[in-house]
Design goal:
mainly beta, globular
Length: 223
């Protein structure tokens, strides 16, 4: 169904705002113990509509493998907004579980957003599902993924409860040397029209580099 709908994402309509973006992420995975790892993260995003770099993120995630193919994660990120994105910078904590089975990988994440404009915490639930299709070339994989953003509560500083957005990605994963994997793809993000505002569709080229400094098996998931 996602592949059938993909051509529609390139068609602008008066009711939907369109934007062209570029997303970049760098992950460095450091093993701490046989079943424990920490991932250091750096993210940057640029937008045509917002006049250049509009979001940066720096963070870390502690991962605990509790069973084969099952990992619990606990992390923190500082999120900065720039250019014409006038939102206040945020601190975010997150908890997640990642499950990998065969060609499928899934992640269920809970975010807590702390905004300096108010004392309320904004919660977000983010389920993600990814399908990986191996190719004849070693370590080269085609993939599609879907992620939803569900907001359980509203806050005085601007978060509104409800289904907020979806992200769909189609791309390819390939190695760059023995320790580095790259994800390159097309990302379509659709923000639901709510509160009188029109819907927003972002079309982005996304690249994610993952440097794995240990022998831990890591499920390949985009953020």
């Amino acid at each position: 169904m996602f592949l059938a709908m993909l051509p529609l994402t390139f068609v602008a309509t008066p009711a939907v705002g369109q934007d062209v973006q570029g997303w970049e992420q760098l992950n460095v995975i450091v093993p701490l113990a046989p079943s424990v790892r920490v991932t250091l993260e750096q993210i940057a995003r640029v937008s045509d509509r917002q006049g250049g770099p509009y979001t940066t993120k720096l963070g870390a995630l502690l991962g605990l493998q509790v069973a084969p193919g099952v990992e619990l994660g606990f992390g923190y990120r500082h999120v900065g907004f720039h250019s014409e994105n006038l939102a206040a910078n945020e601190n975010r904590f997150r908890q997640q579980v990642v499950i990998a089975r065969g060609r499928f990988a899934g992640r269920l994440r809970l975010d807590e957003r702390f905004n300096p404009l108010g004392s309320e915490i904004g919660f977000r639930v983010r389920p993600l599902l990814r399908y990986n299709l191996p190719t004849r070339r070693e370590r080269v994989v085609l993939f599609v993924s879907h992620e939803s953003f569900i907001l359980p509560n509203s806050t005085a500083w601007g978060q509104r409860a409800g289904y907020e957005r979806m992200r769909n990605i189609v791309g390819v994963t390939f190695p760059i040397g023995p320790l580095v994997m790259a994800d390159l793809g097309y990302l379509n993000q659709y923000r639901i029209a709510r509160g009188g505002a029109r819907g927003q569709m972002d079309n982005a080229v996304t690249i994610q580099l993952t440097i794995n400094l240990g022998a831990l098996s890591v499920a390949a998931l985009n953020d």
